[in-house]
Design a protein that fits this description.
Blueprint (H helix, E strand, L loop, with lengths): L4 H28 L2 H11 L5 E8 L2 E7 L4 E3 L17 E9 L2 E10 L2 H20 L1 H43 L17 H8 L4 H121 L4 H18 L1 H33 L8 E3 L1 H11 L1 H4 L3 E7 L5 E3 L1 H20 L7 E10 L2 E8 L29 H12 L3 E7 L2 E9 L4
Helix pairs in contact: 1-2, 1-6, 3-4, 4-6, 6-7, 6-8, 8-9, 9-11, 11-12
Length: 544
């Protein structure tokens, strides 16, 4: 028998509704693997005349299953494709996925049949035909009664119950979405007083209406249980939130204290770094102290010698002046003339003209020596000072190199030949004292490496500067023994040294690396073979 579109729509809606209710009821049971409880639910569902089979699966495996005609269970853990279902016994399959705690836990499959509907409708039609034969009026009254009292009234009551439950569930979901946990309350399972008698009557029926009411009870009980759990969890969640706020407040205070301590540690580290840099400078100064002393001793020696000569010249000039002064004190012309002749003879004897000329040379030489001493002292003072000022100044790299080479002159001149190729280069922004320290560390290391070879001929160091690509380049190259490949990657590490204990701190190249990279935004690297080593320094012309 064919069905009209309305009947099929009602059948589909009923199937969808029952599937939705069943999936909600199964979620917790499947999560807890409560097969006994799922079995009780299945037994209740099998009272539904249109339901042929009920299956709960996870992936392609059966968790629980039961089917009608005959009423038998389906073995768990078998593949879905091996379920012995007869396609002639069902007309529609409804599948609903289940999620719990945000995780996919499986799906519910309900297989529905229209056979019972067909049987009921055939019986109703025969009944209507027989009743129509006896009395058309009575048949119309009975049909009206059956439709309005036996079917529509239960459906309307169930719809009102569902609306009541849905409104509470929507309110619960809204509070959950908004995070208003304090507004979450349990959804009770009470029936409005005006429907109590009707609901009990419909629930006791053995037909589809009774099955529908009993299924609705199962769904309602599951929802009530779930909301009770949510209400308890929300209450506990509020308590946890309060504890978390206290913990966060405490941790915030601890974090502020830790940040303060960290700032103090950073300040001490900066002070330690400054101290270490200055100590390395002093170590370098100690290495060149003898040379500086020698450079100062040379002009000091001839200044002292000139002072001895100048003292004798002054005594001779004083003698001549005294002779002329004696003549000026006489009144007798003859005596004055005789005194002037004696003074003239003394002047020629002591060679006054030579004395005056040589005094000028002595003063000139002594002044030059004093200037030389002043330059050495100024260079040493500029090299040794601490660059506490964070602001950068314009620097000519060539001048830094010249100052450094002058200070190291005595250290280098006996064992090394230094060649310079300093081009006309741009100014860079930086600290002259720090860059001078970098050049000193590299050149002194090259000098020591060459001296350790104890070669017969002096070594060679070349210094080259030039502009390229908006950078000032400086190359310092020596013909020493070179740096072995296995330690090349370590030369810029703090405290790494190849020198004997007590002869090196291992901080020179590490500090040089930090000065160039961190403080001058430049770059420094090394190239080495067994024929020598080249250090390359690149500094930007303009700091951004």
């Amino acid at each position: 028998m064919a069905y009209d579109k309305r009947e099929m729509n009602e059948f589909e809606i009923k199937c969808e509704y029952l599937t939705e209710i069943t999936s909600l009821s199964c979620k917790r049971r499947v999560w807890d693997l409560d097969l006994a409880s799922i079995g009780d639910l299945a037994q209740a569902l099998m009272h539904e005349s249109t339901l042929y089979a009920f299956i709960v699966s996870n992936g392609d495996k059966v968790v629980f299953g039961i089917m009608k005609e005959p009423l038998t269970g389906i073995s768990p853990n078998i593949p879905l494709s091996m379920i012995p279902l007869n396609s002639e016994n069902y007309d529609s399959v409804k599948i609903k996925k289940m999620e719990f705690n945000g995780r996919d836990i499986g799906e519910v499959r309900l297989y529905f049949s229209t056979k019972e509907i067909k049987k009921r409708e055939i019986a109703v039609i025969w009944f209507i035909l027989l009743m129509f034969a006896f009395s058309g009026g009575i048949l119309l009254v009975l049909v009206y009664y059956l439709i309005n009292i036996q079917i529509m009234r239960p459906i309307n009551v169930l719809g009102l119950l569902n609306e009541n439950l849905s409104s509470k569930f929507i309110e619960l979901k809204s509070n959950l979405d908004e995070g208003s946990y304090e507004k979450i309350i349990s959804i009770n399972d009470s029936v409005p007083e005006m429907f109590i008698d009707e609901v009990e009557k419909y629930r006791a029926k053995k037909d589809e209406i009774g099955s529908l009411f009993r299924a609705f009870d199962i769904m309602k009980n599951s929802i009530c249980t779930a909301t009770n759990v949510v209400a308890n969890i929300s209450s506990k969640l509020m308590e946890v939130n309060e504890k978390l706020e206290k913990i966060v407040d405490m941790r915030t205070k601890l974090l502020k204290k830790s940040n303060y301590n960290l700032k103090m540690v950073v300040a001490r580290l900066k002070q330690t770094q400054t101290t270490m840099v200055q100590q390395e400078k002093l170590a370098s100064i100690g290495q060149i102290a003898a040379g500086v002393a020698h450079e100062i001793n040379n002009p000091t020696g001839f200044i002292m010698s000139n002072m001895g000569s100048l003292s004798g010249y002054v005594n001779d000039i004083v003698s001549i002046v005294n002779a002329y002064r004696k003549a000026s004190d006489l009144d007798n012309p003859d005596e004055v003339k005789a005194a002037l002749e004696e003074a003239g003879k003394l002047s020629k004897k002591l060679d006054l003209d030579f004395l005056i000329s040589d005094i000028k040379d002595i003063i000139k030489d002594s002044s030059e020596g004093s200037v030389r001493i002043k330059d050495i002292v100024d260079n040493l003072k500029n090299y040794a000072r601490i660059d506490n000022n964070q602001s950068l100044s314009s620097i000519n790299i060539n001048e830094c190199l010249e100052v450094t080479l002058k200070l190291l002159g005595n250290e280098l001149k006996y064992d090394l030949i230094v060649s310079k190729n300093l081009e006309d280069i741009s100014f860079v922004q930086g600290h002259s004292g720090q860059l001078a320290q970098v050049f000193t560390n590299i050149i002194v290391n090259a000098s020591h490496a060459i001296k350790d070879q104890k070669r017969d001929q002096p070594g060679h160091i070349s210094v080259k500067t030039y502009d390229k690509d908006d950078f000032v380049w400086c190359e310092i190259e020596d013909d020493g023994p070179g740096i072995p490949a296995d330690i090349m990657q370590k030369i810029f590490e703090p405290f790494f040294t190849t020198k004997e204990a007590g002869k090196g701190t291992g901080l020179g190249l590490s500090i040089s690396f930090d000065i160039i990279k961190a403080k001058h935004n430049g770059d420094i690297w090394c190239e080495s073979t067994d024929q020598g080593t080249k250090f390359i320094i690149k500094l930007p012309v303009h700091h951004e």
